[in-house]
Amino acid sequence: MSADITLLESDVETSLRSTVREMLADRCDPNAVLSAYEGDRALTASLWKTVAVELGLAGLVIPDERGGAGASVREAAVVLEELGRAVAPVPFLSSAVEAAIVLREGNSALVEQVASGERTAALLAPFSTAPDADLPRMSVDGNERLSGRVTSVAGALESDTLLVAADTVEGTAVYALRTSDVAVASFVSLDMTRPLADITVDSVPGEVVVPPNSGEAAFRRALRAGAALLASEQVGVTAWCLESTIAHLKERKQFGRTVGGFQALKHRLADLFVEAESASAAARYAAGALAADSDDAAIATAVASSYCAEVAVHAAEEAVQLHGGTGMTWEHPAHLYLKRAKADEIGRGSPGHHRRVLADLVDIPAS
Amino acid sequence: MEDDTTAADLRRRVASVLAEHDPATSDPLEFHRARFDAGLAWVHFPEGFGGLGLARELQPFVDGLFEEGGAPDNNSKINGIGLGMAAPTILAAGSEEQRRRHLRPLWTGEEVWCQLFSEPDAGSDLAALGTRAVRDGDDWVVNGQKVWTSVAHLARFAILIARTAPELPKHQGITYFICDMTAPGVEVRPLRQITGEAEFNEVFLTDVRIPDGQRLGADGDGWRIANITLNQERVSIGGRDTPREGGILGMVADTWRQRPDLRTPELHDRLLTMYVESEVARLTGVRMRQKLAEGKPGPEGSALKLTFARLNQELSGLELELLGEDGLRYEDWTMVRPQKVDFTQRDAGYRYLRAKGNSIEGGTSEILRNIIAERVLGLPAEARADKDIPWKDLPR
């Protein structure tokens, strides 16, 4: 069940982690991230180019023979931990994980373009869509033109390609659309580091990238990977919150002593550490189970999704609280993590939703 | 198993013990002695003391082979303190003679051990202990009271820490002894607990004479050696992976499956939340063992103990609520002295009450949080008023 999946990090993963971390330390400081809230999206484009092309991570999970790096979602999980730790505003999850996994299932040449970072894609589904939820579907007419509307889509603003499920007479296919052909209405997002948009598609030509019958499975597989790997992003968010709060409490003095020496605060941080370690094991297991195509992948995903989301929110809330007045300010980065954590909690299914999925998987019926 | 030749060698050694002492027909004691003498009791102990000087991580492999071969149990449930705490301490700090005298009958289960550490006024602040040992010729004369002592009523020997230099600060004046539980002046009284049972004891020590040859380590070195004992607790957590739904979770889940009449939406979500937390704790344990197997011990031992204490308490509480009116019935308040703690064969009410001890025994959750905060996270230590003051001058 779990004995055959290592929860430790391989040397390759450690090296990948430090590469990504160093680049982000250099290129993605919190002040620059903060500019996303003022509508400045300059950082996103240049940072994504670095991640996707210079580090070659756009095609991380795409096979070698199709232009990718031939790695697995385990390595992608490591990247997401680091992106979470930096609240980096890049569409790695939407393009390099979710869209890449959909495209992997078909024969479209688009997969090479996404692998190289030449094109960036996103799934046309609300960010809140859970892997087992009803899929948003476009209608398709006799001329392969698609129509429909999908709200709260992540990655759309950064993408030139949108992947959408549509029912044909032969079953559900996945079509690719040009983002330039659709109406993209961005709105003010709770998490401006992963801005969302409402998409209206009105008789737009599409290209079949995953054929009918395997389209729905491909879409769901991608959503499941999204849910499972969001847990790793949440582990990264948690790690930053814990580390920065510890650092603050070692510095801050009140009542003539370092506040980190007060037992009431130490115990809260100890509890948070326990949660962070646990979340990291759960997220690593979910990524490992998915990468190994284990029978346990669905349970592992439900467990990690419900657990890590709540831990990240708790960590971010504690970070704001334990930074005191500073934690409430716009200039301190804690709020960026709180917003990311809370939005991620809703992303790809809420903890409560994943617990109900788990209920079916482990035979704990509601009634 | 990284080293195939070691694995093959261990297989051969185990097969040889099993062949020469068929578990089905041999006297269990004779079998245990043969296994000890073959170095297969604790493979990481030195040769001659039940081991082969191999890596500790190989022990579960050996245990598994013996289990498959139908080997009898060496009283391990009752002698947990002896096997887990006394033996490694005797190995680390004992003289050659002490090791030779005690390790073999300890491992074979002939001699059960208990631990005379905690006192009524020295629990979490163990170094404040007041049991006195005064030198008298070749003996030490011990007076004091210990408490929360499991299996004292069954034990032949005890590991004991006592104060030998009250004029020194509290950590410096402690010495470590091996106490013969049959010596005159040792009185064991059952200590009845909230379950109604007396799983633990109080031990009164009145003019107990301990020969100096039963001192473990140097006079005054007791605190350092006691920490060797206490650190074993963390190392001893989990040699093998536990199954999903192990422990109390499995019992609550089974009740849920068998009793649809008890289900409510509110209890459903609480059960699922604890299901997730239990599964995550299990995975954290799996990772800890994977790290240990690579020789990288982490701080997860304290973290896992905290987690399991909390989960056991929450799950056992949920189980009673789930049972509704059945949860209002308790099995038996008669005072008995159980030989071991067994959560599985008991009613939910017992589990609920007994689990409350999980956050106190073996280090309270509060102390474990301090350990994590100070030793792992590097936060400042609590201000200490007693560190450099002679023990005899401490306010009490």
Automatic annotation (TrEMBL), chain A:
<dbReference type="Pfam" id="PF00441">
    <property type="entry name" value="Acyl-CoA_dh_1"/>
</dbReference>
<keyword id="KW-0560">Oxidoreductase</keyword>
<comment type="similarity">
    <text>Belongs to the acyl-CoA dehydrogenase family.</text>
</comment>
<dbReference type="InterPro" id="IPR009100">
    <property type="entry name" value="AcylCoA_DH/oxidase_NM_dom_sf"/>
</dbReference>
<dbReference type="InterPro" id="IPR009075">
    <property type="entry name" value="AcylCo_DH/oxidase_C"/>
</dbReference>
<dbReference type="Pfam" id="PF02771">
    <property type="entry name" value="Acyl-CoA_dh_N"/>
</dbReference>
<dbReference type="InterPro" id="IPR036250">
    <property type="entry name" value="AcylCo_DH-like_C"/>
</dbReference>
<feature type="domain" description="Acyl-CoA dehydrogenase/oxidase C-terminal">
    <location>
        <begin position="214"/>
        <end position="360"/>
    </location>
</feature>
<dbReference type="GO" id="GO:0050660">
    <property type="term" value="F:flavin adenine dinucleotide binding"/>
</dbReference>
<feature type="domain" description="Acyl-CoA dehydrogenase/oxidase N-terminal">
    <location>
        <begin position="13"/>
        <end position="109"/>
    </location>
</feature>
<protein>
    <submittedName>
        <fullName>Acyl-CoA dehydrogenase</fullName>
    </submittedName>
</protein>
<keyword id="KW-0274">FAD</keyword>
<dbReference type="InterPro" id="IPR037069">
    <property type="entry name" value="AcylCoA_DH/ox_N_sf"/>
</dbReference>
<dbReference type="GO" id="GO:0003995">
    <property type="term" value="F:acyl-CoA dehydrogenase activity"/>
</dbReference>
<keyword id="KW-0285">Flavoprotein</keyword>
<dbReference type="InterPro" id="IPR013786">
    <property type="entry name" value="AcylCoA_DH/ox_N"/>
</dbReference>
TrEMBL record, chain B:
<dbReference type="GO" id="GO:0050660">
    <property type="term" value="F:flavin adenine dinucleotide binding"/>
</dbReference>
<dbReference type="Pfam" id="PF02770">
    <property type="entry name" value="Acyl-CoA_dh_M"/>
</dbReference>
<dbReference type="InterPro" id="IPR013786">
    <property type="entry name" value="AcylCoA_DH/ox_N"/>
</dbReference>
<keyword id="KW-0274">FAD</keyword>
<dbReference type="InterPro" id="IPR046373">
    <property type="entry name" value="Acyl-CoA_Oxase/DH_mid-dom_sf"/>
</dbReference>
<dbReference type="Pfam" id="PF02771">
    <property type="entry name" value="Acyl-CoA_dh_N"/>
</dbReference>
<dbReference type="GO" id="GO:0005886">
    <property type="term" value="C:plasma membrane"/>
</dbReference>
<dbReference type="InterPro" id="IPR037069">
    <property type="entry name" value="AcylCoA_DH/ox_N_sf"/>
</dbReference>
<keyword id="KW-0285">Flavoprotein</keyword>
<dbReference type="InterPro" id="IPR036250">
    <property type="entry name" value="AcylCo_DH-like_C"/>
</dbReference>
<protein>
    <submittedName>
        <fullName>Acyl-CoA dehydrogenase</fullName>
    </submittedName>
</protein>
<dbReference type="InterPro" id="IPR006091">
    <property type="entry name" value="Acyl-CoA_Oxase/DH_mid-dom"/>
</dbReference>
<dbReference type="GO" id="GO:0016627">
    <property type="term" value="F:oxidoreductase activity, acting on the CH-CH group of donors"/>
</dbReference>
<dbReference type="InterPro" id="IPR009100">
    <property type="entry name" value="AcylCoA_DH/oxidase_NM_dom_sf"/>
</dbReference>
<feature type="domain" description="Acyl-CoA dehydrogenase/oxidase C-terminal">
    <location>
        <begin position="220"/>
        <end position="377"/>
    </location>
</feature>
<comment type="similarity">
    <text>Belongs to the acyl-CoA dehydrogenase family.</text>
</comment>
<keyword id="KW-0560">Oxidoreductase</keyword>
<feature type="domain" description="Acyl-CoA oxidase/dehydrogenase middle">
    <location>
        <begin position="114"/>
        <end position="208"/>
    </location>
</feature>
<dbReference type="InterPro" id="IPR009075">
    <property type="entry name" value="AcylCo_DH/oxidase_C"/>
</dbReference>
<dbReference type="Pfam" id="PF00441">
    <property type="entry name" value="Acyl-CoA_dh_1"/>
</dbReference>
<dbReference type="InterPro" id="IPR052161">
    <property type="entry name" value="Mycobact_Acyl-CoA_DH"/>
</dbReference>
<feature type="domain" description="Acyl-CoA dehydrogenase/oxidase N-terminal">
    <location>
        <begin position="9"/>
        <end position="110"/>
    </location>
</feature>
